[in-house]
Amino acid sequence: MACTHRPAPLRLALRRSLQTPAARRSGLVRLLVVAALAGTYAGVAAPALAQWKWRDADGRIQYSDRPPPPGIPARSVLARPAAPAPVQARAVDPAASPAATAEAASGARNVDPELAARKRAAEAAERKAEDERFARERQASCARARDYLRVLETGLPLARVNEKGERENVPGAERDAELRRAREIISSDCR
């Protein structure tokens, strides 16, 4: 007895629907849409995997998921990964400047150069303001110490108020100690 295989009704209906020219065109359109979406996804996903971007010695832009080779200067690195990459051991040139070494050590961070420049400028302005404040405090301390030294050198009796609120004279030994202290403050703050 011969076994006859009959296609399933769904398969048969699908086969018949694809036999018309319009159906074949719509199938082709679907295939093209799927291919275009796959190509777009691949085009978007490929750079996402290549997190490092740098300009090589010939001027060509290179993409990689690994940091650039040690011979590439930090200024040629155009993009770094968002998350810190694992630190790889690199040969350090002993003749390299400390600034270049510090820049290479910070290479794992993804920093916008303009943002970094603004941050450095803000930090420099903050340091300058702190230095100016410190200089003003030293000048004020110097002026107070010079005034106090002038009073001590007059030889007039010195008095202070004790914890009971009573006025008492400062003994000669303490006056000499105060003279030394005022001179030390002047020598350190009045430069």
TrEMBL record:
<feature type="domain" description="DUF4124">
    <location>
        <begin position="44"/>
        <end position="91"/>
    </location>
</feature>
<protein>
    <submittedName>
        <fullName>DUF4124 domain-containing protein</fullName>
    </submittedName>
</protein>
<dbReference type="InterPro" id="IPR025392">
    <property type="entry name" value="DUF4124"/>
</dbReference>
<feature type="compositionally biased region" description="Low complexity">
    <location>
        <begin position="88"/>
        <end position="108"/>
    </location>
</feature>
<dbReference type="Pfam" id="PF13511">
    <property type="entry name" value="DUF4124"/>
</dbReference>
<feature type="region of interest" description="Disordered">
    <location>
        <begin position="88"/>
        <end position="113"/>
    </location>
</feature>
